[in-house]
From TrEMBL:
GO terms for molecular function: 5'-3' DNA helicase activity; ATP binding; ATP hydrolysis activity. Residues 43-192 form the AAA+ ATPase domain. CDD domains: DEXSc_Pif1_like. Keywords: ATP-binding, DNA damage, DNA recombination, DNA repair, Helicase, Hydrolase, Nucleotide-binding. It catalyses: ATP + H2O = ADP + phosphate + H(+). Its EC number is 5.6.2.3. It comes from the Eukaryota. This is ATP-dependent DNA helicase.
Length: 307
Protein backbone atom coordinates (compact mmCIF):
# COMPACT_ATOMS: atom_id res chain seq x y z
CA UNK A 1 0.00 0.00 0.00
CA UNK A 2 1.98 2.98 1.21
CA UNK A 3 5.42 3.53 2.60
CA UNK A 4 6.78 4.28 6.01
CA UNK A 5 8.76 7.41 5.17
CA UNK A 6 10.47 9.32 7.89
CA UNK A 7 10.16 13.09 8.11
CA UNK A 8 12.14 14.88 10.75
CA UNK A 9 12.44 18.27 12.30
CA UNK A 10 16.02 18.03 13.48
CA UNK A 11 18.04 20.79 15.07
CA UNK A 12 21.66 20.85 16.23
CA UNK A 13 22.90 23.63 18.44
CA UNK A 14 26.01 24.49 16.44
CA UNK A 15 27.09 27.55 18.38
CA UNK A 16 29.38 26.87 21.30
CA UNK A 17 27.91 28.96 24.08
CA UNK A 18 26.94 28.50 27.68
CA UNK A 19 23.34 28.89 28.65
CA UNK A 20 22.80 32.33 30.19
CA UNK A 21 19.32 32.03 31.66
CA UNK A 22 18.74 32.04 35.40
CA UNK A 23 18.85 28.63 37.08
CA UNK A 24 15.44 27.07 37.57
CA UNK A 25 14.50 25.50 40.87
CA UNK A 26 13.08 22.00 40.38
CA UNK A 27 9.59 21.70 41.82
CA UNK A 28 8.42 18.37 40.37
CA UNK A 29 8.65 15.50 42.79
CA UNK A 30 11.71 13.31 42.51
CA UNK A 31 12.02 9.74 43.71
CA UNK A 32 14.26 9.00 46.66
CA UNK A 33 17.03 7.56 44.49
CA UNK A 34 16.87 10.54 42.12
CA UNK A 35 17.10 12.95 45.05
CA UNK A 36 20.22 11.16 46.28
CA UNK A 37 21.88 11.75 42.90
CA UNK A 38 21.03 15.46 42.81
CA UNK A 39 22.30 15.90 46.37
CA UNK A 40 25.59 14.25 45.35
CA UNK A 41 25.88 16.55 42.33
CA UNK A 42 25.40 19.64 44.49
CA UNK A 43 27.99 18.41 46.98
CA UNK A 44 30.60 18.37 44.21
CA UNK A 45 32.76 15.60 42.84
CA UNK A 46 32.36 13.66 39.62
CA UNK A 47 29.09 11.78 39.20
CA UNK A 48 28.03 8.92 36.94
CA UNK A 49 24.47 7.65 37.11
CA UNK A 50 23.05 4.82 35.09
CA UNK A 51 20.03 2.53 34.90
CA UNK A 52 18.00 0.46 32.48
CA UNK A 53 15.55 1.99 30.02
CA UNK A 54 12.63 3.73 31.70
CA UNK A 55 14.28 4.43 35.05
CA UNK A 56 14.12 8.20 34.62
CA UNK A 57 17.69 8.99 33.54
CA UNK A 58 16.67 11.71 31.07
CA UNK A 59 14.16 13.19 33.51
CA UNK A 60 16.78 13.36 36.24
CA UNK A 61 19.40 14.82 33.90
CA UNK A 62 17.10 17.69 32.94
CA UNK A 63 16.48 18.35 36.64
CA UNK A 64 20.22 18.50 37.23
CA UNK A 65 20.74 20.87 34.30
CA UNK A 66 18.04 23.20 35.62
CA UNK A 67 19.49 23.08 39.13
CA UNK A 68 23.12 23.96 38.36
CA UNK A 69 24.25 27.57 37.68
CA UNK A 70 23.58 27.99 33.94
CA UNK A 71 26.41 30.42 33.21
CA UNK A 72 29.10 27.88 34.20
CA UNK A 73 27.33 24.67 33.15
CA UNK A 74 27.65 23.03 29.73
CA UNK A 75 25.17 20.32 28.71
CA UNK A 76 26.47 17.98 26.02
CA UNK A 77 25.74 14.57 24.54
CA UNK A 78 27.55 12.12 22.31
CA UNK A 79 25.21 12.73 19.34
CA UNK A 80 23.26 15.64 17.93
CA UNK A 81 19.88 14.02 18.50
CA UNK A 82 20.72 13.31 22.15
CA UNK A 83 22.08 16.84 22.59
CA UNK A 84 18.81 18.27 21.27
CA UNK A 85 16.88 16.48 24.02
CA UNK A 86 18.94 18.19 26.74
CA UNK A 87 18.94 21.58 24.95
CA UNK A 88 22.69 21.33 24.64
CA UNK A 89 25.40 20.71 22.08
CA UNK A 90 27.49 17.73 21.06
CA UNK A 91 30.56 16.87 23.10
CA UNK A 92 32.65 17.27 19.92
CA UNK A 93 31.27 20.75 19.35
CA UNK A 94 32.04 21.79 22.92
CA UNK A 95 35.54 20.29 22.99
CA UNK A 96 36.48 22.04 19.75
CA UNK A 97 39.13 19.51 18.68
CA UNK A 98 37.21 17.92 15.83
CA UNK A 99 37.02 14.15 15.65
CA UNK A 100 40.00 13.78 17.99
CA UNK A 101 42.11 12.05 15.34
CA UNK A 102 44.62 14.93 15.21
CA UNK A 103 47.86 14.83 17.16
CA UNK A 104 47.75 16.03 20.75
CA UNK A 105 49.68 19.17 19.80
CA UNK A 106 47.16 19.98 17.07
CA UNK A 107 44.27 19.31 19.46
CA UNK A 108 45.74 21.85 21.88
CA UNK A 109 45.96 24.40 19.06
CA UNK A 110 42.31 23.83 18.14
CA UNK A 111 41.12 24.06 21.75
CA UNK A 112 43.16 27.24 22.24
CA UNK A 113 41.15 29.22 19.72
CA UNK A 114 39.64 32.20 21.61
CA UNK A 115 36.00 31.16 21.32
CA UNK A 116 36.68 27.56 22.34
CA UNK A 117 39.17 28.45 25.06
CA UNK A 118 36.74 30.88 26.68
CA UNK A 119 34.13 28.18 27.16
CA UNK A 120 36.65 25.62 28.42
CA UNK A 121 37.92 28.09 31.04
CA UNK A 122 34.48 29.24 32.13
CA UNK A 123 32.99 25.77 32.46
CA UNK A 124 32.70 24.40 36.00
CA UNK A 125 30.13 21.65 35.39
CA UNK A 126 30.31 19.47 32.25
CA UNK A 127 27.32 17.22 31.59
CA UNK A 128 27.64 14.37 29.09
CA UNK A 129 24.55 12.36 28.17
CA UNK A 130 24.71 8.97 26.41
CA UNK A 131 28.25 8.52 27.72
CA UNK A 132 28.27 4.90 26.53
CA UNK A 133 28.56 6.17 22.94
CA UNK A 134 31.67 8.27 23.61
CA UNK A 135 34.82 6.44 22.52
CA UNK A 136 37.35 5.90 25.28
CA UNK A 137 40.28 7.25 23.26
CA UNK A 138 38.41 10.49 22.61
CA UNK A 139 37.45 10.74 26.29
CA UNK A 140 41.11 10.42 27.27
CA UNK A 141 42.21 13.04 24.76
CA UNK A 142 39.78 15.74 25.86
CA UNK A 143 40.68 15.03 29.49
CA UNK A 144 44.33 15.77 28.71
CA UNK A 145 43.39 18.81 26.63
CA UNK A 146 41.31 20.18 29.50
CA UNK A 147 44.22 19.96 31.94
CA UNK A 148 46.58 21.76 29.57
CA UNK A 149 44.40 24.64 28.40
CA UNK A 150 42.92 25.22 31.86
CA UNK A 151 46.40 24.98 33.41
CA UNK A 152 45.06 22.72 36.11
CA UNK A 153 46.45 19.23 36.73
CA UNK A 154 43.27 17.92 38.32
CA UNK A 155 41.25 15.48 36.15
CA UNK A 156 39.53 17.42 33.37
CA UNK A 157 41.25 20.55 34.62
CA UNK A 158 39.11 20.69 37.74
CA UNK A 159 35.76 20.60 35.92
CA UNK A 160 33.00 18.64 37.66
CA UNK A 161 31.71 15.86 35.40
CA UNK A 162 28.12 14.64 35.48
CA UNK A 163 27.78 11.62 33.20
CA UNK A 164 24.61 9.75 32.28
CA UNK A 165 24.06 6.66 30.19
CA UNK A 166 23.76 2.90 30.08
CA UNK A 167 26.77 0.89 28.95
CA UNK A 168 24.46 -2.05 28.23
CA UNK A 169 22.71 -0.09 25.48
CA UNK A 170 24.54 1.76 22.69
CA UNK A 171 28.32 1.25 22.22
CA UNK A 172 30.86 3.95 21.28
CA UNK A 173 30.42 5.73 17.97
CA UNK A 174 33.68 4.57 16.45
CA UNK A 175 34.30 2.82 13.13
CA UNK A 176 37.54 1.25 14.28
CA UNK A 177 37.27 -2.28 15.65
CA UNK A 178 39.38 -1.35 18.67
CA UNK A 179 36.92 1.15 20.11
CA UNK A 180 36.69 1.00 23.89
CA UNK A 181 34.28 2.24 26.53
CA UNK A 182 35.13 5.29 28.61
CA UNK A 183 35.23 3.25 31.82
CA UNK A 184 38.11 1.22 30.38
CA UNK A 185 40.42 4.25 30.34
CA UNK A 186 42.89 5.67 32.85
CA UNK A 187 41.13 9.02 32.53
CA UNK A 188 37.92 7.49 33.86
CA UNK A 189 39.71 5.99 36.85
CA UNK A 190 41.45 9.27 37.63
CA UNK A 191 38.09 11.06 37.83
CA UNK A 192 37.07 8.95 40.84
CA UNK A 193 33.37 8.90 39.94
CA UNK A 194 30.62 8.40 42.46
CA UNK A 195 28.40 5.88 40.70
CA UNK A 196 24.63 5.61 41.14
CA UNK A 197 22.20 3.11 39.62
CA UNK A 198 18.54 4.03 39.16
CA UNK A 199 16.51 0.87 39.75
CA UNK A 200 12.86 1.92 39.81
CA UNK A 201 11.25 1.51 36.38
CA UNK A 202 8.68 4.19 35.52
CA UNK A 203 7.99 3.31 31.89
CA UNK A 204 6.39 -0.07 32.61
CA UNK A 205 4.24 -1.22 35.51
CA UNK A 206 3.88 -4.94 34.71
CA UNK A 207 6.41 -6.74 36.96
CA UNK A 208 6.55 -9.75 34.62
CA UNK A 209 7.42 -7.57 31.63
CA UNK A 210 9.98 -5.62 33.67
CA UNK A 211 11.62 -8.89 34.69
CA UNK A 212 11.76 -10.01 31.04
CA UNK A 213 13.42 -6.74 30.01
CA UNK A 214 15.98 -7.04 32.81
CA UNK A 215 17.00 -10.52 31.66
CA UNK A 216 17.21 -9.47 27.99
CA UNK A 217 19.28 -6.43 28.97
CA UNK A 218 22.03 -8.79 30.12
CA UNK A 219 21.64 -11.06 27.10
CA UNK A 220 19.86 -13.78 29.07
CA UNK A 221 16.79 -15.42 27.52
CA UNK A 222 15.42 -18.36 29.47
CA UNK A 223 12.95 -20.91 28.05
CA UNK A 224 10.25 -19.33 30.23
CA UNK A 225 10.90 -15.86 28.78
CA UNK A 226 10.84 -17.26 25.25
CA UNK A 227 7.50 -18.91 25.98
CA UNK A 228 6.03 -15.69 27.39
CA UNK A 229 7.13 -13.63 24.39
CA UNK A 230 5.92 -16.15 21.83
CA UNK A 231 2.53 -16.20 23.54
CA UNK A 232 2.06 -12.54 22.58
CA UNK A 233 3.45 -12.73 19.04
CA UNK A 234 0.20 -13.91 17.46
CA UNK A 235 -1.95 -11.07 18.76
CA UNK A 236 -3.67 -9.39 15.82
CA UNK A 237 -3.52 -5.63 15.43
CA UNK A 238 -6.33 -3.42 14.21
CA UNK A 239 -4.56 -1.76 11.28
CA UNK A 240 -7.16 0.94 10.53
CA UNK A 241 -5.51 1.37 7.15
CA UNK A 242 -2.09 1.97 8.71
CA UNK A 243 0.80 -0.38 8.09
CA UNK A 244 2.60 -1.25 11.32
CA UNK A 245 6.04 0.26 11.78
CA UNK A 246 8.92 -2.17 11.29
CA UNK A 247 11.92 -1.74 13.56
CA UNK A 248 15.30 -2.18 11.87
CA UNK A 249 18.80 -2.44 13.30
CA UNK A 250 20.40 -0.44 10.49
CA UNK A 251 19.40 2.71 8.60
CA UNK A 252 20.24 1.11 5.26
CA UNK A 253 17.73 -1.69 5.85
CA UNK A 254 15.02 0.82 6.81
CA UNK A 255 15.74 2.90 3.70
CA UNK A 256 15.39 -0.14 1.42
CA UNK A 257 12.01 -1.01 2.95
CA UNK A 258 10.79 2.58 2.64
CA UNK A 259 11.90 2.82 -0.99
CA UNK A 260 10.22 -0.47 -1.84
CA UNK A 261 6.91 0.61 -0.32
CA UNK A 262 7.13 4.05 -1.92
CA UNK A 263 7.55 2.53 -5.38
CA UNK A 264 4.23 0.72 -4.96
CA UNK A 265 2.37 4.04 -4.93
CA UNK A 266 1.22 5.28 -8.32
CA UNK A 267 1.11 8.98 -7.34
CA UNK A 268 3.75 11.49 -8.47
CA UNK A 269 6.78 11.81 -6.23
CA UNK A 270 7.90 15.08 -4.67
CA UNK A 271 11.48 15.70 -3.58
CA UNK A 272 12.40 17.76 -0.51
CA UNK A 273 16.02 18.71 0.19
CA UNK A 274 17.20 19.91 3.59
CA UNK A 275 18.64 23.41 3.90
CA UNK A 276 21.21 23.80 6.66
CA UNK A 277 21.72 27.30 8.06
CA UNK A 278 25.21 26.39 9.28
CA UNK A 279 27.18 24.93 6.39
CA UNK A 280 30.06 23.96 8.69
CA UNK A 281 27.79 21.58 10.59
CA UNK A 282 26.21 19.98 7.50
CA UNK A 283 28.42 16.87 7.49
CA UNK A 284 27.81 16.21 11.18
CA UNK A 285 24.07 16.76 10.78
CA UNK A 286 23.88 14.38 7.82
CA UNK A 287 25.71 11.69 9.81
CA UNK A 288 23.64 12.02 12.97
CA UNK A 289 20.18 12.87 11.64
CA UNK A 290 17.81 9.87 11.57
CA UNK A 291 16.77 10.69 7.99
CA UNK A 292 18.48 11.37 4.69
CA UNK A 293 19.23 14.91 3.51
CA UNK A 294 16.97 14.33 0.50
CA UNK A 295 13.42 13.17 1.26
CA UNK A 296 11.11 11.79 -1.42
CA UNK A 297 7.37 11.59 -0.70
CA UNK A 298 4.21 10.66 -2.55
CA UNK A 299 0.55 11.28 -1.85
CA UNK A 300 -0.62 8.32 0.21
CA UNK A 301 2.74 7.67 1.85
CA UNK A 302 2.83 7.06 5.58
CA UNK A 303 4.86 9.70 7.36
CA UNK A 304 6.44 9.61 10.81
CA UNK A 305 7.38 12.86 12.53
CA UNK A 306 10.55 12.73 14.62
CA UNK A 307 12.32 15.26 16.80
Amino acid sequence: MCSLTVLTMYFEIATKKLKSATAIVCTEKLTEEQTVVIDAVLQGGNIFFTGSAGTGKSFLLKKIINTLPPDVTVATASTGSAAFLVSGTTLHSFAGIGSGESTFERSIELASRPQVLQIWKKCKHLIIDEISMVDGKYFEKIEKVARVIRRNEKPFGGIQLILCGDFLQLPPVEKASKAMFCFQTKAWNSCNFKTFQLKKVHRQSDPIFINILDFIRFGKVTPEITKQLLATSKNSLNANGIIATRLCCHTREANLINQSQLQKLKSISKTFEAEDSDSTATKMLDEQSPVEKVLILKVGAQVMLLK
